[in-house]
Write a structure and sequence with these properties.
Rossmann fold; nine-stranded mixed sheet; two-stranded antiparallel sheet; 11 helices; 11 strands; 28% helix; globular
């Protein structure tokens, strides 16, 4: 079955400075489960690009494999796009960025695509400070392959087999901070008021901007003990093994003031305790951000907001002193300077 977005839009829709409406930043109709947190993140990206007056054709969106990596299809339909293999999005993004620094690069990944098979790729993208927005849609489960535990699955969370996870989860924000990421944020897919400004800030950042977004899976991670649970009606665990129909679910939202906690109750009775950072937090202190994550984790709270930003950083182009011009615009003279130049380069290393 194919789906199409109706072409009609109200003629009085608000327009940004480029004359675009939000329709100009949309993509195809989502085929994800109704109520999936990933769709809320796509909507936040659309809104952020609209508010920042981003020309859609000046964006390159990249992804790997997984439910999260399907989502670039659902936003910025007039931008450049590349769907890579599992876990390899950072390499593709790095190569594209080195070839043309003039585009805005948005990489979308998931907890499996980032924290498991793609961890090595993620590490080096952070280390190189690639100028891109890296969004991890983190639902703590392999949804596309029907519910196996991922590397971020919460301790004690019940899998589709009915067995609790015995392994400690990987905290991607903490790892990003320890690796030297120059922009790190954590958010919740249902908190659009917070998520949209975070994405806008990441777009304005020069360097690697990492955003971990807790994005509940309505189908395969809806169990007590998971901080990434969501609403999915099921009578017993065996039902997750042969899912033929996923009942539509309403999006769960959470909007609350800075510096406060919010207990978000899922329809299955599980609870996630979100804490929104207050303004007094020093976002320029890396050690403070790491300590903050650990402090709230000890209280079974998930801290959200911009955790750290380095505004004086140099991205990979400045570090390596690369050309300002896209490689496609360079001619033979620049790309093949001749033997004399090669000899001069070799002499530098003798």
């Amino acid at each position: 079955m194919s789906y199409k977005i109706p072409a009609f839009r109200h003629p009085n829709l608000p327009r940004n400075e480029l004359g675009h409406t939000t329709k100009d930043y949309e993509g195809a109709v989502s085929t994800l489960c109704a109520g999936c947190g990933h769709d809320s993140i796509s909507a936040a990206i659309i809104e952020a690009c609209f508010q920042k007056n981003v020309p859609p054709h000046r964006v390159a969106k990249l992804s790997g494999i997984g439910c999260s990596s399907k989502t670039p299809t659902y936003f910025l339909g007039h931008s450049h796009g590349f769907n890579s293999v599992h876990g390899r999005m950072p390499s593709v993004a790095t190569g594209a960025n080195m070839a043309n620094r003039e585009l805005l690069y948005i990489g979308v990944s998931g907890d499996g695509d980032t924290a498991s098979i793609g961890m090595g790729q993620f590490v080096h993208a952070v280390r190189r400070n690639v100028n891109m927005v890296y969004i991890c849609e983190n639902n703590g489960v392999y949804g596309l392959t029907k519910g196996q535990d991922s590397a971020t699955t919460d301790l004690g969370s019940i899998s589709k087999k009915g067995e609790p996870n015995a392994l400690e989860p990987i905290d991607l924000c903490s790892i990003a901070l320890q690796l030297g990421a120059t922009f790190v944020a954590n958010s919740f897919s249902g908190d659009k008021t917070q998520l949209v400004p975070i994405i806008k800030a990441a777009m304005a950042h020069r360097g690697f901007a990492f955003i971990n977004v807790i994005s509940p899976c309505v189908t395969f991670n809806n169990t007590p003990g998971s901080t990434k649970a969501y609403d999915y009606i099921r009578q017993h665990m065996a039902s997750t093994n042969t899912v033929d129909y996923v009942p539509p679910a309403d999006e769960i939202t959470a909007e609350f003031p800075e510096g406060t906690d919010e207990l978000v109750t899922m329809h299955d009775g599980s609870v996630i305790n979100l804490h929104k950072l207050e303004k007094k937090h020093d976002i320029h202190s890396r050690s403070s951000a790491i300590s903050l994550i650990q402090e709230y984790r000890a209280e079974d709270k998930v801290v959200t907001g911009i955790l750290f930003i380095d505004e004086e950083t140099q991205d990979i182009h400045e570090t390596m002193n690369t050309t300002d011009r896209p490689l496609r615009d360079l001619g033979t003279k620049e790309l093949c300077p001749g033997g004399a130049e090669l000899d001069a380069i070799n002499d530098l290393h003798r």
